[in-house]
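Technical note accompanying the year-one report. For the benefit of new consortium partners, we illustrate the data format agreed upon in the data management plan: each record pairs a sequence with a structure-token string. No post-processing was applied to the example shown here.
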Amino acid sequence: MIKIKRKIWVPLVAWAALFLFIFNTTNFFHGTKFALINATYETIVSCLMYYITYLFLFPRFHKKGRKYFLISSLTIIILAVIFLSIDQYLLTEYRIAGENKPPEFFHFFRYFFSLGFVFFVATSISLMNQTSQLQANEKLLTEEKLQTELKLLKAQINPHFIFNALNNIYSLTYMQSKNAPESVLKLSEMLRYVFYDCNKDRVPVSAELTYIENFTAFQQMKSEYIQNIRIKTDINGGTAEIAPMLFIPFIENAFKYSRIEENENAFVSIDIKSRDNKLHFQIENSFQANLKPAPGSGMGIKNVRHRLDIIYPNQYELKIDEQDELFSVNLKLNI
């Protein structure tokens, strides 16, 4: 079965309906032959006016404001005179003999208002189509912009992570730590996650937690003593997914400002749990007064805020607070 596009059958139905309306109305007062000819003629007149407006007047002049309506009014007057002349001098012979003929100005105004109405309909449809197209283009541009921004943010995360990881390995190697070989292995596992798994828009929460555990183990290797690092997880179900590397900037920030690898009294506490399609991430760390971060500062945290706005608009709550040498981040996320 041949499918006819909507752009074809809708106008055909509209013009057919107009033809039938004019024919039935004219046939009520005049003969069938004249009604048929008159309906055909006036449908053609309306069709010409519509497509002159839709294809020529509106695209070329609608941005010029008043000039559009002045040019359109002049066009309607000229066409009304032309169609009136054709009506009066070519279609007269088909009228019923002896019937009273209305004055010419009556026919002129009939054509003028009829063409004006068609012009109004064509302009309205053109404006609606233009608005729909602009909205579609805006939506497309917005989606392309979001995808570009996400790619840029991911591109910023990877070098930032590698820079920190290589610094950690350098420190272990410089101190001739026995943990240096193990740190290289951990780095290899973490890089596999960053460069392969994180290319996806979503990753399992369990994969993100494994990465966090490796990350904290990597940090522990930098100290001879056992660092005060606490990780508590309570995730219901294994199918939940989140945007990758979402928590890492906060964790990096906590280790950076707590100076936990140098201060035995410092601590980092991480708590991740899920309930009813909501994921709650909380991290607390001690900090030294002369190194305390301003809430929301730093490339990593700014990127997280930006990513949250793009990926989870109106679906998250983020609170960053500091008091009494305690820095905390609370993130509630709809998953």
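Partners are asked to follow this layout when depositing records. The chain has two domains: 6-137, 175-334.
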